[in-house]
Each structure stands twice: as C-alpha cells, then as structure tokens.
Write a structure and sequence with these properties.
Elements lengths: L1 H28 L12 E6 L8 H16 L2 E5 L7 H10 L4 E5 L4 H10 L4 E5 L8 E4 L3 H15 L4 E6 L4 H17 L4 E6 L6 H12 L5 E5 L3 H12 L2 E6 L10 E7 L1 H13 L6 E2 L15 E3 L11 H16 L16
Parallel strand pairs: 1-2, 1-3, 3-4, 4-5, 5-11, 6-7, 6-8, 8-9, 9-10
Antiparallel strand pairs: 10-12
Helix pairs in contact: 2-9, 3-4, 5-6, 5-10, 7-8
Length: 349
C-alpha cells in the first residue's frame, strides 16, 4: 500500500508540474492585451472621393480590398461622403464599434479629433492628415518628393520651356504637392516657367479639360494634375493638344498611353497596412510622414514612387533617366530634402 501511495503522490506531482508548465507556456504566448485577434477586428474605410475616379478615391477601395485579403479582417467601405456629413459618418461607424476607421482625405482630420474624443475606444487613422490625439493618427505622405521628381522630369523634357499644373482645390497638402513640382522643375531647368490653376471641383472632367486647354494655349507642353476625376479632362486635353500629361496617386498611363508620361504613385496598400500594424501594436496617436520608395512595396517606410514610362520609355533620353535616378537616390539617402510648403495662398478676388 505504501508503494501505491508513493506512486500516486509522485504521479500527482508530475501532473501538477505539467499543468503549471502548460499554463506558463500559454501565458507567454497569449495574444497581448493591446492586440486585437485578427478574426474579430473590424475596419471601415471612408472617403469623400469617388471609388470610380481611377485615382485618389479608387486607391482607397483597392487598398481596402488588399488589407481585407492580407489580414482576413472584416472591412467595409463608403465613398462620396459629403464634406458636411464627415463628422456624422465617423460617429456612425464609431457607434457600430468598428475597431479602426481609416479616413481617406485631409478633410477628415478635424472631425476625426472631435469623434475621437467622443469615442475613446475607437481608433481613427487619417490618410493625408496632420492631426493626432491619443486615439487618432495621421499618415501624411511626403508627396512633394514624388512631385519634385515629376517637376524635374518636366523641366528636362520641355521644349517650350513652359510647363503647367491643374489642382482640384487649394488644400494645404495639394499646395505642398505643387510646390514640390515647381522646385523640381527649377532644379533641372532654372529658367522654366510654371503656370497653374485650381478648379475648386474634384469631379468635373469638363471643367478640368477647359482649364487645361487654357493653360496649354500659353505654350505649355507638359501638364501635371492632382484633381481626381477632373484630372481625366486634363489628360484628355493634353492628348488632343499633343502634349505630355503627368498623373497622380495611381499610375494613370492606361488613361492615355501615348500622353501620360509618368505619375507619382501612392503605395496606399502599404500605408493602410502601416495603420493597421500601428493599431495592433498600440502605437496609434502619431503623425507619420513617409517619403519616397523605389517601387511599390519597397523596403523601408516610404510610400511614394514614380510610375514607369511604359511604351513611352524610348522617348526619354538616357541622361534624363540617369538624372531622375540620381535625384531619387538623393531623396532616399536624405542628401536631398524637399521642404513642406503647406500654407494656402490667398486668391485675389
């Protein structure tokens, strides 16, 4: 009997040790409290742009599909939100207890701060925003680095020594982009003239075409747009007038393969992934300013790159390509800095 009791006690001790070890192992490998299980995290992607614009708005939809596939999260999307309804739209998704709301557009910044205070458990990330709080973060890509390279390209290939641009509206981040364009052009062609205008309309191709045609008539032979679907009219005018166009946000060569020479592209898939990782890691509440990368999905934090020349590649002299590569490398290394210019210029009445 004594032998049996000893065996039982020993067995009990061994069993207890095993259970404790299992519990300890489980505790060490449990999901940290600041991480949401991927199967339950819910994300909303909202924008005032149109998913059908083949530019800014469509980039949000494509990125939403990408993160849904990559992470297996539930992702809902909504576009064409009126500016006046931005705050109430954020409140709606916050009340529905979405874990992360990605607000695609600079206009969402101030409303995000208001709703963030009202719903402290909801995380909000503003793409191209410049706001932050404990639960609101912004990703403000250094788009002026991409437009600087486009400006440098335009300065080198212009034959009339006059280049142009058309903007959807004079938002600070759009001013920043065109300032980069001007600086880039002057860096490769100090005597170049730059003519531009703002439409105050993002979704009016006819208005974009009219404005571009007016600019092209002033001897412009390269024209750059950041104007969402209004930019389609800019590209159409460039095509009809036999000049080069430069696109924005997405590679827009497919809109006019013989006209759109290049575009600065935002790696929105990567940006949204960064927002999700920041939320999972509990580092929300920052303003991040990622700059240039060599190509989509490149190493590092950069999310801005230039599209290829596609079938127009043979139109670009080797010396121009070499200079662009040199400038890109200088941006990557920090040797070249394109300063932010965010102030909104006053428009004379």
């Amino acid at each position: 009997m004594a032998r049996s009791r000893t065996y039982a006690v020993t067995t009990g001790i061994i069993f207890t040790v095993i259970v404790v070890a299992i519990l300890a192992f489980s505790a060490l490998h449990a999901t940290p409290k600041n991480l949401e299980p991927k199967s339950t995290m819910r994300i909303a992607v909202v924008t005032d742009a149109l998913f059908s614009d083949e530019g800014w708005g469509e980039s949000a939809l494509n990125a939403a599909k990408f993160i849904e596939s990559k992470y297996g999260f539930e992702v809902v999307t909504e576009d064409n939100v009126p500016i006046a309804d931005i705050e109430s739209t954020l409140q709606e998704y916050a009340r529905d207890e979405y874990d992360l709301i990605i607000a695609h557009g600079v206009q969402w910044g101030d409303p995000a701060l208001v709703v963030g205070r009202q719903f402290p458990n909801v995380k909000i990330a503003v793409f191209t925003g410049l706001v932050r709080s404990e639960n609101v973060a912004s990703i403000f890509p250094q788009q002026q680095q991409g437009s600087f390279l486009l400006g440098a390209l335009a300065g080198m290939i212009t034959k009339t020594n006059v280049i142009g641009y058309v903007g959807g509206e004079e938002y600070p981040n759009i001013v920043n982009i065109f300032e980069g364009y001007k600086q880039g052009a002057k860096s490769t062609n100090p005597g170049v003239e730059v003519i531009g205008t703002y439409l105050n309309d993002w979704d009016n191709p006819a208005k974009g075409k009219e404005a571009a045609t007016s600019i092209i008539r002033q001897n412009v032979d390269v024209i750059f747009h950041v104007a969402d679907s209004s930019g389609h009219g800019v590209i159409e005018s460039a095509k009809e007038n036999g000049v080069y166009a430069l696109g924005a946000v997405q590679d827009q060569n497919s809109l006019a393969p013989d006209t759109v020479l290049s575009s600065f592209v935002l790696d929105v898939d990567k940006a949204y992934s960064q927002a999700i990782e920041a939320t999972l890691n509990g580092t929300q509440g920052e303003i991040r300013k990622p700059g240039i990368e060599l190509e989509k999905g490149g190493t590092g934090d950069g999310i801005v790159y230039l599209a290829s020349f596609h079938d127009l590649d043979n139109k670009i002299p080797g010396v121009v390509k070499s200079k662009l590569q040199e400038l890109t490398n200088d941006l990557l290394s920090g040797k070249l800095v394109v300063p932010e210019r965010l102030e909104v210029a006053l428009i004379p009445e």
